[in-house]
Structure formats: structure tokens, C-alpha cells
Design goal:
globular; 10-stranded mixed beta sheet; 518 residues; alpha/beta
């Protein structure tokens, strides 16, 4: 979630283009409270992790660094109201960490971090950003790095909805209206059951409530102002915090900016349009290398070839004796929607599949989808911290989405996306959205705030399209920093971009952009 790592080949072509990112817009007046009187951190020993958990958290060449950082980490909790409108009611705890600044004589304050989601764990993010890129250590020179698990996640108070008794089988090929209607009914029932599980808790899994928790953390740390770095949904948390607490913000940098006016239809449509746009770049790249990939000598011809393959594989899914399930148009669409660093791999797969006759899968396709990876890896270590929480993700979306689409509306939206994005529309499956969520919507509108704000937009990315950055600036203000890549949240991953982020937090100055992942 946090790191824009190059995905494995199978994950690239089988995973959905958008992962956990999200944004959620809505409507809120500034919080007039000047702090959280009485807030205090209950500091306690940090968890002790097994070697297996440590190896899952860091690559082999960074294990010693991780252990050294863990030795410096401070861990604690703050107690907050479940519902800030009823401060004497039910109480919950929010888990946080602090990595003290290394240059205490020139310390500037606390810098809180959030990796996205909603539902992503930020508890160990202070360590993860430093392990990810040596340039990021500059963030910890003059700042205490603050990680935290939002309410509903990880070590904080949470509720997990029971899993559904049975998942419907994935539809292979073209989805019929009757099949979609059955999927809709199943999803509505699952959503309703989750929302009814602990409605008083689930109804308070909102961005505004997490923002209020964050301000309680600020007060408990004794900080007059908070610095903040958020990625993906963390950018939505940032602008909501800044809207609610305009006088409590010092410097804020938000990477891969979320949609500023949230509803799931606009969210999905925006991401799909961005995927189609980036697939057009891919088509032009393939055309310039037609002697290698044989998909067409012009971008127009490559687009037509990929579009035809999506339709053909949906109408006639391909079965290969050495692959576990048939391949349909969704696989072709996912290949067309990959990031630029996987264009060669995806081009080889598309070129093979265009003429594949079976009965076995072509070699590159087999390598990607059915190759032997050394056997099962086993379950994750029992003490590995939760990386993301699906219940919090679902609740945060649905609490802030004002739409509860009927089947006819959901079906029409799905058909429109397929028609508008012939190469990549099939990367998103039909969904009932938040239909069935039993709790009332709680939208929040963002607005201007205080402090210094930098909004990072990635020119070609899919999960947070670049135009969302410009739209957010129009509502919240701030400066735009443009990254010329298609990789979600890559600023802290690339040394040149990370150096600019460090400079901003240390001095308030930042360049106009960086190349990003090349």
C-alpha cells in the first residue's frame, strides 16, 4: 500500500488495477476546539517481533537496519471517544508509535504518516519509509516520525465483520444481466450484514473521526501544530484534517491525491478513464516496437487489436490444459493497464495470446500465470502486524458515499464504463457499491486550511488520476508538485523525489516536480 514496488508478473496481470487507495469526500465545518484537554499518551513497550515477522517486513539487506530502528521506536495508545459528539460515551484506543528525531537540538516537531487505505496500518510506517529509501532518513533528522493505526485497524480498537458464508464463483467471460443481478443481490446482503454487525462502532469509521483522533494525538504529544505526510486515502485524511483543524497544521505533503468530491461511481469512472489514457501510451509504445510484439505498427492499430482481443476473449474464453482456469477479457484488459515498467512483459503476453492455439499456454503467459514459484509459501507469521483491514475499508467508503444504487443504476454505470474504456474497462468488475449499507451517509466537504500544503500528482497514474490533484487544489489551495510517472505514491520511493519532500519539511521549499519511477 505504501510502497510502489514493482509487482510480480502474476500479480500485475491478475490483480485489479486499483488497489486499496480510496478517497472519500464529504461536508464539515472547522472544529473550533483548540486541542484535546487531558489527552495523554499511554507509553508502553513495543511489540517484540519474531524473525519471521521481521523478514516479512524488510528485505534481507535491510533487516539489521529494521532492528536498529525498532530499538529506537516508542509505542503507546491514546484513549478517544468513539463518537466525539458524545465524549462521555463509549471509549476506544488508537495505537501510535514515535521514532524520535536524531538531531534533537534542531528538532522541528512531529510528522505524522499515513499510508492510505482506508484501512491501511501506519503503525510501523516510520520504520518502513526509512527502510524503503535512504533519502527518507532525512525526514527523521529534525522530526519525530509518528505512525498510527487508524480506528478499526491493527493495534487500535477494531471490529471485523464475519466473512460471508460463501463467495460466489467468478464469472468467466461476458457478464450477463441475470448474472449481474445475482451478484448484486449477494453483495447487498453481505454489505447489510456487515453494517448490522456493530453499527455503533462501524458508523464512526469515518475520515472525520480519524482526523479528530489525529488531533487528539497531536495534543497528547504536546504539539501546537502537526506536520503530516499522507499517501492515497491518506491524502483525503490530510485535507479533511486541514479543513477541520485549520490552525493546527504546520506542513503537509499529500502524495497521489484522492478524489475531492466522493461517490463510488465517479471514483470508479475516474480511475477507469485514467487506465484507458495510460493504455493509450502503452499502445503507442508497442507500435514503435511492432517488430517485437506484432500488435500493430500504429497506436490506432494497437488499440484496435487490444480492444478486439478483450471482446474475443470474453465471448470465447481460452482454456489451456496447464492453467488453472480459462482466460477471458479481464486478463487482456489488465495486461493493457499495467504500469510502464511492465510494458515489455505485458506486450509479450498480449502478442502470444493474440495467436495462441493451445492446447498448452504460450511460454510467457505460462510463466506469468501458471509458472512454478517454488510451492506454497505458508501462512504469514502469527505476530505480523495487520497491514490493512477490510471492514474499516468498507465502512469508511460506505459511511461517506451518499449513493445506494439500485441494480438498474449499477448495471447502467457498469455498461457505460465498458463502452467508454474499450481496452481497460474490464479491469473493474461489476459492483453493487454501497447498496445495502444500513447506516446513514456522512459526507464531508473539504475547504481551505492553514499551514503549508503540497499536493503531489502523478501525470499518468490510474488509482489517483492527475486531474484529482488539480480539483483538490481548487478546493483546498496549496501548491502542486507533478511527478512524471504512472506509479501510485512513488515520491518516497524515488531518491530525487524523496529529497524534495525532505527539503519541503525542513525548509518549506520544494521544486515543481520530479521524473518519478523511470
Amino acid at each position: 500500500m505504501m510502497q510502489p514496488n514493482r509487482l510480480t508478473a502474476s500479480a500485475v496481470l491478475l490483480g485489479a488495477v486499483g488497489a486499496l487507495l480510496a478517497a472519500t469526500p464529504a461536508a464539515a465545518a472547522p472544529d473550533t476546539s483548540s486541542g484535546r484537554p487531558g489527552a495523554a499518551v499511554d507509553w508502553k513497550p513495543c511489540p517484540a517481533y519474531s524473525e519471521g515477522a521481521l523478514r516479512a517486513l524488510a528485505p534481507p539487506d535491510r533487516l539489521d537496519q529494521l532492528k536498529a530502528l525498532l530499538a529506537r521506536l516508542q509505542c503507546g495508545t491514546v484513549t478517544v471517544p468513539l463518537d466525539y459528539r458524545s465524549p462521555r460515551g463509549r471509549r476506544i484506543t488508537v495505537a501510535l508509535t514515535r521514532l524520535p528525531a536524531t538531531d534533537r537540538a534542531h528538532r522541528l516537531g512531529s510528522l505524522a504518516l499515513n499510508p492510505g487505505g482506508p484501512g491501511g496500518s501506519g503503525y510501523l510506517m516510520p520504520l518502513q519509509v526509512i527502510i524503503q529509501n535512504d533519502a527518507n532518513a532525512g525526514l527523521n533528522t529534525r522530526y519525530d516520525l509518528i505512525g498510527f493505526d487508524p480506528r478499526g485497524v491493527g493495534y487500535s480498537t477494531k471490529v471485523d465483520c464475519p466473512p460471508p458464508a460463501q463467495r460466489p464463483e467468478r464469472v468467466i467471460g461476458t457478464l450477463s444481466k441475470d448474472q449481474a443481478r445475482q451478484l448484486y443481490s449477494t453483495q447487498v446482503a453481505e454489505t447489510a450484514a456487515c453494517g448490522d454487525y456493530d453499527p455503533s462502532f462501524l458508523g464512526r469509521l469515518t475520515t472525520a473521526d480519524v482526523a479528530r483522533d489525529l488531533d487528539t494525538i497531536r495534543a497528547a504529544l504536546g504539539e501546537r501544530g502537526l506536520n503530516f505526510l499522507g499517501v492515497s486515502w491518506g491524502t483525503w485524511l490530510g485535507v479533511v484534517y486541514r479543513t477541520l483543524f485549520p490552525h493546527n497544521v504546520d506542513r503537509m505533503l499529500l502524495d497521489s491525491v484522492a478524489i475531492p468530491r466522493f461517490d463510488l461511481t465517479s471514483f470508479d469512472s475516474g480511475r477507469n478513464a485514467a487506465a484507458e489514457r495510460n493504455a493509450g501510451r502503452f499502445a503507442d509504445w508497442l507500435a514503435a516496437r511492432d517488430s517485437t510484439y506484432h500488435l500493430g505498427a500504429t497506436g490506432i492499430r494497437v488499440r484496435a487489436a487490444i480492444t478486439a482481443m478483450v471482446a474475443d476473449f470474453d465471448a470465447h474464453p481460452r482454456t489451456f490444459t496447464d492453467l488453472p482456469e480459462p482466460l477471458d477479457g479481464s486478463l487482456i484488459a489488465q495486461a493493457a493497464a499495467v504500469n510502464h515498467y511492465d510494458w515489455d512483459l505485458a506486450g509479450q503476453v498480449l502478442g502470444e495470446l493474440r495467436t495462441a492455439a493451445g492446447p498448452t499456454a504460450p511460454p510467457k503467459t505460462k510463466e506469468v500465470l501458471g509458472g512454478d514459484d517454488g510451492g506454497p509459501q505458508g501462512p504469514p507469521p502469527a505476530d505480523l502486524p495487520e497491514q490493512s483491514n477490510q471492514t474499516m475499508n468498507h465502512a469508511a467508503f460506505c459511511n461517506e458515499d451518499t449513493a445506494r444504487p439500485s441494480f438498474d443504476t449499477a448495471w447502467a454505470d457498469y455498461q457505460r464504463r465498458l463502452a467508454a474504456n474499450p481496452m481497460t474497462g474490464r479491469t473493474l468488475r461489476f459492483s453493487a457499491g454501497c447498496a445495502g449499507w444500513p447506516l446513514p451517509p456522512q459526507p464531508v466537504r473539504i475547504g481551505p486550511g492553514g499551514g503549508e500544503l503540497v499536493l503531489v500528482g502523478h501525470r499518468w497514474e490510474t488509482p489517483s488520476p492527475y486531474e484529482w490533484t488539480i480539483q483538490t487544489q481548487a478546493r483546498a489551495g496549496g501548491r502542486v508538485y507533478t511527478v512524471d510517472d504512472d506509479v501510485h505514491g512513488s515520491v518516497l520511493h524515488e531518491p530525487a523525489c524523496a529529497a524534495d519532500a525532505v527539503q519541503f519539511f525542513n525548509t518549506g521549499r520544494i521544486d515543481a516536480g520530479c521524473p518519478g519511477v523511470v
